[in-house]
Amino acid sequence: MGQTIRLVVFALEDRRYGLRLEAVEQIVRAAAVTPVPHAPRGLLGLLDLHGRVLPVLDLRSRLGLPPRDLRPADRFIVAHTRQRVVVLVVDEIVGLTDVSDQVMVDTAAILPGLEVEGAVSQGEGVVLIYNLEAILPEHDETELAEALSAAAEDRRA
Is 90 helix (H, G, I), strand (E, B) or coil? Predict the structure, then answer.
């Protein structure tokens, strides 16, 4: 018998994506983001969330979607990787869903090299299930850490 995976399903453009619920800390309304000088690709800036300064990642650039300005209707998903808490900008939260790991398609079997954990067919199409560790690979994590360190130095100066 398979396991059930709880997913937070969100939309970017007309596409649906999912993150495992255990990686999601909270979902909040979009707010002002402070730009970081010399930020690496995909880092929109910093967000002060209840006294915690968190990096805001632009999933659009990471997923090859067209850029657009932040909108008041957007949502932030506050999620954690092994190394840090990050904020992901999404167009909307579709909802929570339970998926059996037996119906989840292993995307490596279909198209090796995709940065997704799997895919599942739902009523409105395919939901790509992302692993945050794949969205923020080690070399990007290093660039992000350096940019955040430089931003912290700038704030102290």
Answer: strand
Contacts of 14 (CB under 8 A, 6+ apart): none
Q: What is the pLDDT of residue 153?
A: 66
CA–CA dist 91, 35 (Å, integer): 20
Q: pLDDT tens-digit profile of 43-55?
A: 888 999 999 989 9
- Listed by start position, the domains of the chain span 4-156
Tens-place pLDDT, residues 98-137: 988 767 777 666 666 666 777 888 877 888 888 777 666 5
Q: What is the dihedral of CA 7, 138, 75, 31, to 10 degrees?
A: 150
State how far the Cα of 142 lies from the Cα of 40, in Å rounded to an integer.
10
Q: CB-hemisphere CA count at 13 Å for 118?
A: 14
Instruction: Provide the β-strand partners of residue 72.
Output: none
The CATH code for residues 4-156 is 2.40.50.180
Beta strands in 62-148 (DSSP E): 75-80, 85-90, 92-100, 116-122, 125-130
